[in-house]
Here is the input.
Amino acid sequence: MRTVFYTASTLNGFLAGTGDDLQWLFDVPEEDGGPDPAAFIGSTAAGVCGAATYAWVLAHEAPPDVPGSWNDAMIGTSPLFLFTHRHPPIPEGADIRILSGPVSDHLATLAAEVGDGILWVIGGGDLAGQFLDAGALDEIRVDIAPATVAAGKPLLPRDLGPDRLRLVSAQRSGQFAHLTYEVLPADGPERPIGTD
Here is the structure.
């Protein structure tokens, strides 16, 4: 299983502004060029998210009372593993699998489902941080938007230094900067940049 945290962030490192506001993201004009997020999503074997991300998707992209909205909005994320202690509504036709407790308790379950495929960590940042804490975060892909917010939810609320991140690629994608970093093991050997 390869675990990839792929998301968008403001220039100053926030996934969302105050009150989970994403207007900064929707204000960026769509342009062609750069990597296609849909291609990445289509290559994944499963997705995983936390309760706040799931609640945002239900409220803005896939209302449970609108038939087919889940499949339209979340195509390529089946199954979706949801880390929550609640019992949220599940849209018709959605393959949502509820998990609770620490990420480390469920790595074997996730690996059994994903096999050699990609597990997309959709969000939020703290959930990605839990994968990092468990030594199970392999890659971070982030589309940096030309916008800042004064406060909000940080991209990754963990200390992670340059000894643990290897830049794989940096590309322009319209007005976004698309960055891909490999996350190196905490106790692994240092590898020169640009080698596999």
Q: What stands out?
A: The radius of gyration is 17 Å. Residues 2-183 form a domain with the Dihydrofolate Reductase, subunit A fold (CATH 3.40.430.10). Helices lie at 23-26, 37-42, 51-60, 69-73, 107-114, 125-133.
